Fold this protein.
Amino acid sequence: METLNSILDTVDGYVWGVPLIVIILFVGFLLTIRLGCLQVINLPNAIRYMLHNEKGGEGEVSSFGALCTALAATIGTGNIVGVATAIGTGGPGALFWMEVAAFLGMATKYAEGLLAVKYRTVGKDGKVLGGPFYYIETGIKERFGWNMKWLAVLFAVFGVLAGLLGIGTITQVNGITSAMARLTPNAPEFINLGGNSISWTTTIAGLLVTIFAATVIIGGLKRIAKVSTYIVPIMAIVYIIACTLLLLLNASQISTAIETIVRAAFNPSAVTGGVVGSIFIAMQKGIARGIFSNEAGLGSAPIAAAAAKTKEPVRQGLVCMTGTFFDTIIICTMTGLAIVVSGAWDPELGLEGVAITMEAFTRGLSIIPGGATIAPYFLAVALVFFAFTTILGWAYYSEKCLQYLIGGKKKSAILIYRWVYIAAIFIGPYLTVSAVWTSADIFNGLMAFPNLVALILLSGIAAKETKDYLDRLHNGHVGD
């Protein structure tokens, strides 16, 4: 297992090296400038459109349903475990770089959603196929006359692998079972895999998640969207309320925590005592975990956006943008502040992954009677719902990538893939935390490269579409 971890770490270092971090930030900055800082100026419109479905558009699900499917995939273990892992390995400064990437990523996510709707295909049966593979293939060819189908295929291959072996299955179920195992430290051992003891709690939790996921995934997009529309808003609101309570109870320490985060972003060793001595490590962990959580630049969210019932690409782009705002700017920030305020990130505690966030909530809520006892159970339940919906969202994403690769006509192949996806969920609990998260980072990074190339090449199209829509909006020529 140590050899595997070493290999994965080496590959991860190459994938998430300076080039990818630079290009992610560059694309976000480029789009922010070309779109006139749209993520700030038009955020109110974006939130309004999120809550008000467009009339008369063609697609498979409502605009809000498409957003909830995207949020189902993004609001997951990244918000609880990913933030903790970033701070635990990159220091508190990782949260600062996560926020910077998220701010720029809002412009990236907007452009992805816009291009996905503009270049999608809608069949006579109302089935929609759209996303990066289509704006890579069709958009670039229309704009420059270049045949980039090979790049679209590359994206789709990485998308299938990311869903099947990375962000969609193994990391999510592993996060759920790790949380459950921490709540029952004395549970009897079920099996020992190379020194990795697997308890009965882990086994049963993994089996239940697999069964529940299977009942939804086999039903396809409409069932996934329906379940997500109910679960995502409720779980997000409850989690935000819990984080707000924790921060209010520890309000006197928030300013110190913010100062620590900013100082650690530029001088990590001064805060971490030398455990993290490089700004690059803080940036790498913060940006990588931020992308894992909000998926801006990854190219996944536009696959869901393409299915929205809309006739206005810009409108759906704005709705798509709110996903990054709620996921990272609000939820990840709250989780990160809770971890730094409580001191649960301290390397001397020897904690990793979900254990850091559980410790943060236990400490932060201990002020109220029974808070320290209830906190781990609340967080475990939140993690279950967060991760479960991410499993559902990525089942849809990776399936659409496969449909693109095989032409979308072989229904038997899609059904087989769904069962293979479910099998990947089943084996997730038996892998180590380090190997799981590193492999997810690798597939995320590989998936991002083709998409980011397309966004750079099509940034002018996004800017033109945006200007045209905003002009019509200001002149009253845009309806509901």
Remarks:
- The chain is about 75% helix and 5% strand.
- The first helix runs from residue 2 to 15.
- The mean pLDDT is 83.
- The beta strands are 121-122, 128-129, 189-193, 196-199.
